[in-house]
């Protein structure tokens, strides 16, 4: 398992619902959540070890949002 963190523009419950199909539909993503309380709206994604940060960011982009990797 690998855990990745991203700064996003996912900023409300409706946005979370909008990106859910893209994240839930991506093979290799085992779990994810968005911290809507955080100023940076941090998306935490747990994956198998085969997905890269760029691939996860592309999935989020397919869902209509931006995701930029951050160190945690």
Automatic annotation (TrEMBL):
Protein name listed in UniProt: HMA domain-containing protein
Gene3D superfamilies associated with the record: 3.30.70.100
The HMA domain, residue ranges: 1-68
InterPro entries per the UniProt record, alphabetical: HMA_dom, HMA_dom_sf
């Amino acid at each position: 398992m690998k855990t990745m963190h991203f700064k996003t523009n996912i900023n409300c419950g409706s946005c979370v619902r909008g990106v859910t199909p893209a994240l839930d539909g991506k093979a290799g993503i085992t779990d994810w959540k968005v911290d809507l309380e955080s100023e940076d709206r941090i998306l935490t994604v747990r994956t198998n070890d085969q997905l890269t940060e760029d691939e996860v960011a592309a999935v989020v982009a397919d869902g209509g949002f931006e995701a930029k990797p951050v160190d945690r």
